[in-house]
Design goal:
The structure holds two protein chains of two kinds. Chain A is mainly alpha-helical. Helices cover 83% and strands 0% of the residues of chain A. Chain A has one domain: Up-down Bundle (3 helical TM bundles of succinate and fumarate reductases). In chain A, helix 6 packs across helix 8. Chain A starts with a helix and ends in a 5-residue tail after the last helix. Chain B is of the alpha+beta class. Chain B has two domains: 101 residues, Roll (Ubiquitin-like (UB roll)); 124 residues, Alpha-helical ferredoxin (Fumarate Reductase Iron-sulfur Protein, Chain B, domain 2, Orthogonal Bundle), CATH 1.10.1060.10. Chain B has a five-stranded mixed β-sheet with strand order 2-1-5-3-4. The chains are: A mainly alpha, B alpha+beta. At the A-B interface, helix 2, helix 5, helix 6 and helix 8 of A face helix 5, helix 8 and helix 9 of B. Chain A: Keywords: Heme, Iron, Membrane, Metal-binding, Transmembrane, Transmembrane helix. Chain A: It comes from Desulfofundulus australicus DSM 11792. Chain A: One of its GO terms (cellular component) is membrane. Chain A: GO terms for molecular function: metal ion binding.
Chain lengths: 212, 249
């Protein structure tokens, strides 16, 4: 960067602020994802409970505040966390070669973090569109969606929880709040529990009559 | 102990003869008890190929000049025993640094640039009085400084870092650890804001993605995660405390 450009565009705090926005948006999204899983798992308590919860969120406008807010947070996260993804062919080649050669678990985890991130962008986009066009959320419509697109939901579940679990792990590593091996084990356990809950929930929806 | 016949596949390229493209050359060598890569490479150079280029000085993991990629991982050749490796050993020069030839790279230029950029010296306004008694430092602080100071500047953390591999201006663990060392030092009078000027950007603390290949590949076992996190936290606190500067235009 030449001197004029540097002088004119310089904001010494920009990189730090972007990094903090990445942290905050990531934490919000992990919080959302885990809550979302618990809400969807309400189906395990029965169709009535699931429908009542959905109606409750609707009635108090929580859905109408929550959904746009989370979409906005997700958009911000795509921009600020996405800046870490190497976007040049040459850089991508270097990273892949480097990861293969180094054989280092954490480096590979991050490579898949960028891949799952991009997969979630597409899959979650489709998911939100499907849910919003089939509004309101009821057990019977959800079951219909899952029965028609089971593989789609299995991939979204795995990609989402992987990205959330390891994303949070990475933040703990970067800020050094807790020993990285301890927090790694804790987050892996949480992720396995959430994925298991997700799998059971999908199974419960598969057993429901569906929209037919 | 049954001696193995080791096969070394070594990267060959000399920037002075660019017409000869880079290639991998194989050497066979009988393993000896307690053999390090330092011993193996010297044997190859003495007995098989005097043109092979690689760096060594101390043989004891102090000088940091013999770092190379051993089967893809950054290691010190003098500290790596062949018995810990499979019988086929691939040796490549460290990436990121300027290649001198074959396995020899110039880490000096990179580290000098880093030292200048981080202003790696004690900043003080106090005048030195040669007749005064030397001031004492408490042991705890001295040990903390020493922990960061143990870095031998071999470049393994830089070679292992994905970010440093694609971003030339990134200071990496060696650079940020260096800053941590001066932050801990009570003799350095730099304010958090002044440190922020040095590492409060993506070239410094906020460029780290947290892959920890630096920590996992450091031959000296430096606690690099905690050093990086310490500087990141300090810099975030300094950045949040600072008022945005008024722009000139």
């Amino acid at each position: 960067m030449n001197t004029q450009e540097k002088l004119l565009t310089r904001n010494p705090r920009a990189d730090m602020l972007v990094d903090l926005v990445e942290l905050a948006s990531g934490i919000l999204l992990v919080g959302f994802l885990w809550t979302h899983m618990l809400f969807v798992a309400a189906i395990l308590l029965g169709v009535t409970t699931f429908d009542r919860l959905s109606a409750f969120l609707d009635e108090y406008y929580l859905s109408y505040i929550g959904i746009p807010f989370i979409l906005l947070v997700a958009l911000v996260h795509i921009v600020v966390a996405g800046r870490r993804i190497p976007n040049k062919w040459k850089e991508q080649r270097i990273i892949l070669r480097h990861s293969k050669m180094l054989g280092h678990t954490d480096t590979w985890i991050w490579v898949f973090q960028t891949i799952t991130g991009m997969a979630i962008l597409v899959l979650a986009g489709i998911h939100v569109w499907m849910v919003l066009t089939g509004w309101p959320i009821r057990a019977v419509t959800s079951a219909g969606r899952i029965q028609s697109f089971l593989w789609f939901y299995i991939i979204l579940l795995l990609a989402g929880e992987y990205h959330a679990g390891f994303g949070l792990y990475r933040q703990f590593v970067k800020w050094g709040w807790i020993n990285r091996h301890t927090i790694g084990a804790v987050l892996k356990t949480i992720t396995v529990i959430i994925v298991a809950l997700g799998a059971v929930t999908l199974w419960a929806f598969m057993r429901l009559g569906g929209a037919q | 102990m049954a001696e193995r016949l080791l096969t070394f596949s070594i990267f060959r390229y000399n920037p002075n003869t660019p017409e000869i493209k880079p290639y991998m050359q194989e050497y066979k060598l009988e393993e000896m008890p307690g053999m390090t890569l330092f011993v193996a490479l010297n044997k190859i150079r003495e007995e098989q190929d005097p043109s092979l280029m690689f760096d060594f000085v101390c043989r004891a993991a102090i000088c940091g000049s013999c770092a190379m990629l051993v089967n893809g991982k950054p290691r010190l050749a003098c500290k790596t025993l062949t018995k810990d490796l499979p019988s086929r050993i691939t040796l490549l020069p460290l990436p990121v640094f300027k290649l001198i030839g074959d396995l020899s790279v110039d880490t000096g230029t990179w580290f000098r640039h880093m030292s200048l950029k981080t202003e790696a010296w004690i900043h003080t306004t106090r005048e030195f009085d040669p007749r005064a008694r030397e001031e004492r430092m408490d042991n705890e602080t001295a040990l903390k400084i020493y922990e960061a100071e143990r870095c031998i500047e071999c470049g393994c953390c830089i070679a292992g870092c994905a970010t440093a591999n694609i971003r030339e201006d990134f200071l990496g663990a060696a650079g940020i650890n260096r800053v941590a060392r001066f932050m801990l030092d009570p003799r350095d009078e730099r304010s958090p804001q002044e440190y922020f000027e040095v590492v409060g950007t993506e070239e410094g603390a906020f460029g780290c993605v947290g892959l920890m290949a630096c920590e996992d590949n450091c031959p000296m076992g430096l606690p690099l995660q905690m050093q990086l996190a310490y500087v990141r936290r300090k810099m975030a606190a300094a950045g949040l405390a600072a008022r945005p500067q008024t722009r000139a235009c």
